[in-house]
Structures are given as structure tokens and as C-alpha cells.
Design brief:
By secondary structure, this protein is mainly alpha-helical. It has 19 helices and no strands.
Length: 412
């Protein structure tokens, strides 16, 4: 055996590993997109529920708020299961729960049923096909380009959000909200071929590691919880979710209330949400170059400007303000995610990253639940969403300050 042939074989093995890593990332991206689109479609069903059952905006928001809290509360459990079972099994489990919840939701006729099915069953299913499951796998496969890889993965959330509003609105307009639920359940069959692309074992060799992984300390949950960075990350997740969900769930209801046509409003918001894909990917790539903190603060500022434009909309003739709001809020939707999640992986790497990330993201669930419910309550009390929008801007500002403090490394 010559040295050249051994080198060629090693090079071929590296190329195969890189191709395999990108294939796994692609399958994870598509699965995450599918589950996110199902969950974000609730913005359309909220209006259908208020029209059919006469629920208030706060009542119709309860299921979504409960779902966000359940998502955060269950993240440690899901993260621990992912560390043990692997992403493939978690995806299949999540798909089954999502399909079960969608089918039963098509026959719901009471608020508590929607709360249980969407807020608990479907949320648990989506959590099994989300960041807590995929990030540990992807962060091990891409070490030197971790921010970029996580950004590609997290952009699936924005794509799902972009697809959900116009697609769900078309389904509801065409076959009713009950038929739309059944159609969405059938679409989950796409998860089966995607799950087949994921590894049976999680210990895949890293692509693009550059030798960086060898000297990295592996953290346990108890060790991580003794650092102040662990708790600040939880606060950052919570403040960011409060800022985002004070706006996102009620965007369509806000636009329709101002006087925009529902399908037009859903299309504009969908186009804005599509911008999350380049926004998230660019921010993730920037975080690898200029630092996680600087990249995240930039996106906080863009989100604040986008929400501010909504404060000036009071007529359906103000199309340009609506487009500016949709595009700026859309391009920065989830854009902080890669920087925050990659920062978590940077600070606390190791085989227990899923569990650590799951505990930290409890704050994300609590913030999302509080924000989405509070926006509906404030609308019921004041008659509009403007106070909620002001609170969103404040939460984003506090989140940016908190994240900026994480620029110093953890001291062991």
C-alpha cells in the first residue's frame, strides 16, 4: 500500500463525511420546516375559531400560549430523550403525535379540546422535531462552521412560518378549518423518508472540525447550572420570545382589524416571513465572523424597527408601512436563534448538550406563552395591539443588553 493511496482513501473518507453531514442537515431542515409550518398555522385558525365559536382574542390565544409553555417545560425531557434515543426516533415519535393531534382537532368543538390537542399533544410532537433534538447532532457534525450550520437549520422555522399563513388560509377558505386540519395531517407522511436519512447512532464524525473538538471540555447539566452564563442564556431566551410573540401570533388579526383583506394580509406576512431564511442564515454566518453577540444585537435592532412601523398603521391604505413592518420583522424573525443557540453550544459542548439546551429553553417557552397570551389580553382590554407592540420593543431591548454580557468566556 503506497502513501498516496492511503492519503487518497483518507481524503475520500473526509469527502464522504462532509456529504453525509450536509445530507443530515438537509433532512433535519425539511423535517423542522414541516413541523414549524403546522404549528405556526395557528395564526389562521385563531380567526376561524373566533368566528365560529365566538371566543375572545385572549380565549383563542390560550391554546397557543399553553403550547409555548409546554414546549419550554418539556424541553429538558425532550433534550434528554434525544441524547439517548437519537434524532431519528424522536422525529418518528414527534410525527405520530402531530398527526394524532391534527386529526382529533378536526373534530374539536370546545376550547379545552383545542387547548389539550394543540397546547399539549401537538406541541410535544413538534418539540420532538425541533431545535432541542437537531442542534446537538448538527453542532457535533459542524464544529468550525457551527454558527452557519445552526443558522441553516433554524431558518426552517422561518420558512415554516412563511408557508403556514398563506397555505393555511387557502385551505381554510377552500375546505374549512376542519378539512384543513385533516389535510395537514396527511402531509406529515413526508416525515418518513426524511427520518430515514438521519443516523441510527448519534456519534457521527464531525465535518469541518479542523481539529477543534479534541480539546473541548464536555459539560454536564449540574456543572453548567453553576455558571452565571447558564442563567443569563435562559433570560435571553425568555425576553426574546416575549418580544417576538407579543407580535407574531396576532399579526394577521391586527392587519385584518385595521381593514386589510385576510388573504392579502396573509400573503404579505408570508412574503415577509420568507425573508427569515436569508436573515437567519446571514446572521449565523456573521456570528462565526464578528461574534455571536454583535450579530444578535444587530437583529434585535432590526426587529425593534420592524415592530415600530406597525405602531403607525391605522388604515388599509398604508400598504408601504405594512410591507415595511412585515419585511423587517420577518427578516429578523428567528435571526437571533443561531447566535444564541451556537453560543450555548460554544459555552457548554458535550454529549449532554441536548439536556442543557432543553433546560435553558424553558425560558423560551415561558416567554412565548406569556407574550402570545398577553397580546390577546391587552387587545381585549384596550381594543388594539399597540401597547403590546411597545412592550415587544422593550423586551427586545432588554434581551440585547443581556446577551451582550455573554461576550466573556466561561471560567472553569
Amino acid at each position: 500500500m503506497t502513501a498516496n493511496s492511503a492519503e487518497e482513501r483518507d481524503a475520500a473518507r473526509v469527502r464522504d463525511g462532509i456529504r453525509r453531514a450536509w445530507l443530515i442537515l438537509g433532512a433535519s431542515f425539511l423535517a423542522f420546516t414541516l413541523s414549524a409550518s403546522v404549528m405556526h398555522a395557528y395564526t389562521v385558525f385563531l380567526l376561524a375559531f373566533t368566528a365560529e365559536f365566538g371566543w375572545s382574542r385572549a380565549e383563542a390565544s390560550i391554546a397557543y400560549s399553553v403550547g409555548q409553555v409546554v414546549s419550554g417545560a418539556s424541553s429538558p425531557l425532550v433534550g434528554g430523550m434525544a441524547d439517548r434515543l437519537g434524532a431519528r426516533r424522536m422525529m418518528l415519535l414527534g410525527g405520530g403525535l402531530l398527526a394524532f393531534g391534527l386529526v382529533l382537532s378536526a373534530f374539536a368543538d370546545a376550547l379545552w379540546q383545542v387547548v389539550v390537542l394543540y397546547g399539549v399533544v401537538m406541541t410535544l410532537g413538534a418539540n420532538c422535531i425541533g431545535m432541542v433534538v437537531f442542534v446537538p447532532l448538527i453542532s457535533r457534525l459542524f464544529v468550525a462552521r457551527r454558527g452557519t450550520a445552526i443558522a441553516v437549520l433554524q431558518s426552517a422555522n422561518g420558512l415554516g412560518r412563511a408557508i403556514s399563513a398563506p397555505a393555511a388560509q387557502l385551505l381554510v377558505s377552500g375546505i374549512g378549518w376542519r378539512g384543513a386540519y385533516l389535510a395537514m395531517a396527511g402531509g406529515l407522511a413526508l416525515l418518513l423518508p426524511l427520518a430515514a436519512q438521519l443516523p441510527r447512532r448519534e456519534r457521527e464524525p464531525p465535518a469541518n472540525s479542523g481539529g477543534a473538538a479534541a480539546s473541548v471540555r464536555e459539560w454536564a447539566l449540574a456543572e453548567a447550572a453553576r455558571t452565571w452564563q447558564f442563567w443569563v442564556l435562559g433570560l435571553v431566551y425568555m425576553l426574546t420570545s416575549i418580544g417576538s410573540f407579543l407580535v407574531s401570533l396576532h399579526q394577521l388579526a391586527f392587519a385584518v382589524g385595521v381593514g386589510f383583506d385576510p388573504l392579502y394580509a396573509a400573503s404579505v406576512l408570508g412574503m415577509g416571513a420568507f425573508l427569515a431564511l436569508p436573515g437567519v442564515i446571514v446572521t449565523g454566518a456573521l456570528s462565526d465572523r464578528i461574534g455571536r453577540e454583535a450579530a444578535a444585537v444587530l437583529t434585535y435592532f432590526i426587529s425593534m424597527i420592524g415592530v415600530a412601523f406597525a405602531l403607525f398603521i391605522d388604515s388599509p391604505s398604508q400598504h408601504w408601512l405594512f410591507w415595511l413592518h412585515a419585511c423587517l420583522f420577518g427578516v429578523s424573525w428567528g435571526a437571533r436563534g443561531p447566535a444564541i443557540t451556537a453560543k450555548t453550544a460554544d459555552l457548554f459542548p458535550g454529549p449532554r448538550l441536548g439536556t442543557i439546551l432543553g433546560v435553558i429553553t424553558i425560558g423560551s417557552g415561558l416567554g412565548a406563552g406569556l407574550g402570545s397570551w398577553a397580546a390577546g389580553l391587552l387587545f381585549d382590554l384596550t381594543g388594539d395591539y399597540r401597547l403590546g407592540f411597545w412592550l415587544s420593543i422593550a423586551a427586545y431591548g432588554l434581551g440585547s443588553v443581556a446577551f451582550w454580557t455573554l461576550r466573556r468566556p466561561v471560567r472553569h
